[in-house]
Specification:
The chain is an alpha/beta fold. The chain is built from 17 helices and 26 strands. It is 31% helix and 23% strand.
């Protein structure tokens, strides 16, 4: 079984069951209707010359077109390579030239952006979607309507064949295209169903961008696998999300820490009705413990912290509702079909329980490497030199495991400052700063220093209406951390730059403060 089979089989089992509500258009789709659309897409795209292994990109807001492409392209062995529309034309041009899509689908908001890219990229066909019209573009709705809705003839497919190429956020260096194989898509569904407790009776709102793994695979694909229902948002709108969670009786929801903060700050949060929601899950970045406490204190219910990566799937750990309270700050235990280990990144040796090490992940949900980047693939897919086991994916994340087998993500090994021979991990210092009642957000970067090599600079965003001085914050930090970990410089900002999936863009902070 491959990703190509998922929608076909679900439509066979639950043809009349409602699968998707598109909040932007008000259109509702059954599984039979979604599968027919995917078939039409596959047959039309194949007629345009797209074959197994060819890439198709999309530059558009969320919509049913992403579902068409994901499942339709999988049926003919073609590869979905979505583009992050929050990037600049220069960044997108690099990605397009790396994955070389044969077809590029564009929404109305990004026609001008595509025009900037066009002189530097080669694409056989451009398609306008969601009402976009521009010179030379094919019309998506017309093309779909004219195509056959019969199941397309399948090429030979293996589990390791690439289903999608998802580019990393590029917080450091050039973005890399993670090759997501068909087996990873399938096993992510199995892991999620087995460990998070989703069922075919669940409904989930999806408001994270579908050019990301979280949007495509966290809840949407597993719910389609199970026969559940997805409520899809074109863009992030707090008040519309509150209304939908109540009116559409949503039962499970995923967000990133930034989204939970934005929801809490929205005027409608206090009166929002979450009575149908069994649990919320936070992913994409570490969930601050104080944010989780504040959310549960305000609304009750369950807020779990999840963990995943584009390269290893969006769901790698699991915990019960009770454990999410008792083990607040933990991401849980490894999911059923997965293995984890923590190693000393310098020696490759396993670390003891309670000690910090680099998190390695093995399982059928691990990617096959990076598109046209064998060097990066070799660095990330590690084989144990003693046992020969592997490939283990080296996450680059620092973690520890307690005596009960629960894992805690501490930070990124690369997100580290080396000052005067001492290692200072950003996540640890940032966590202390966020405990100060006046601090809403904090991000630590390294800046050059003649004597120490580099020292820490903390960028702080204060809570609305709160005040704090540099001296006060340094003193507070000194009460909890060693002296060498106290940032040498603190600056205040109105906001931090975030990626579309909730990660602070520290390269931008370094350009601003350390350049």
């Amino acid at each position: 079984m491959h990703a190509a089979d998922l929608l076909t089989n679900r439509a066979r089992l639950s043809p009349g069951h409602e699968a998707l509500i598109d909040k932007a258009t008000g259109q509702r789709y059954t599984y039979a209707e979604l599968n027919a659309r995917a078939n039409r897409l596959a047959n039309w795209i194949r007629a345009l010359g797209v074959q197994k292994g060819d890439r198709v990109s999309i530059l558009a807001q969320n919509g049913v077109v992403y579902v068409d492409l994901l499942y339709g392209l999988a049926k003919i062995g073609a590869i979905l390579a979505p583009l992050n529309w929050r990037l600049t034309a220069r960044e997108l041009t690099y990605i397009a030239n790396d994955c070389e899509p044969r077809v590029l689908v564009c929404g109305p908001e990004f026609v001008d952006l595509l025009a900037e890219m066009r002189p530097e990229i080669e694409v056989a066909h451009e398609i306008g979607v969601q009402g976009a019209q521009f010179e030379g573009a094919l019309d998506y709705d017309e093309g779909l309507a004219a195509a056959s809705d019969a199941e397309p003839e399948r090429p030979p497919l293996e589990g390791d064949d690439t289903c999608a190429i998802l580019y990393t956020s590029g917080t450091t260096g050039r973005p890399k295209g993670a090759m997501i194989p068909h087996r990873q898509v399938l096993w992510n569904c199995i892991n999620t169903a087995a460990s998070w407790g989703l069922t075919g009776d669940d409904t989930s709102p999806v408001f994270t961008p579908l050019f990301h793994a979280g949007g495509l695979f966290a809840f949407m694909t597993p719910l389609f696998y199970l026969g559940g229902r997805v409520v899809l948002f074109r863009a992030f709108d707090q008040e519309e999300i509150f209304r939908s969670i109540a009116e559409d009786r949503c039962t499970a929801a995923l967000g990133v820490p930034t989204i939970y903060r934005m929801l809490m700050d929205a005027p409608g949060f206090a009166r929002a009705d979450f009575s149908h929601v069994r649990f919320f899950i936070s992913g994409g970045a570490s969930l601050p413990v104080e944010l989780a406490r504040e959310w549960v204190s305000a609304k009750g219910g369950v807020l779990r912290q999840g963990y995943g990566l584009t390269e290893v799937g969006v769901n790698c750990f699991s915990m019960t509702d009770e454990e999410s309270v008792r083990k607040l700050g933990s991401v849980g235990k490894p999911v059923f079909h997965s293995k984890m280990r923590l190693i000393d990144p310098n020696t490759g040796q396993d670390v003891a329980i309670g000690k910090e090490g680099e998190l390695l992940i093995w399982g059928p949900h691990v990617c096959t490497g990076y598109w046209r980047n064998p060097e990066a693939s070799a660095k990330s897919l590690w084989f144990d030199p003693v046992s020969g086991s592997g490939p283990w994916f080296r996450t680059g994340d620092m973690a520890r495991m307690d005596e009960e087998g629960f894992y805690y993500i501490i930070g990124r090994y690369k997100d580290m400052i080396k000052s005067g021979g001492e290692n200072i991990y950003a996540a640890e210092v940032e966590g202390i700063f966020r405990e100060h009642p006046a601090v809403q957000e904090a991000a630590l970067i390294g800046i050059p220093h003649e004597k120490w090599g580099e020292v820490g600079l903390m960028v702080v965003v204060l809570e609305e209406g709160q005040k704090a001085t540099v001296e006060e914050l340094k003193a507070f930090c000194g009460e909890h951390l060693a002296r060498f970990k106290i940032p040498k410089k603190i600056v205040f900002a109105e906001a931090l730059p975030y990626s579309s999936y909730g990660k602070v863009l520290k390269t931008r902070l370094k350009e601003q403060y350390a350049g």
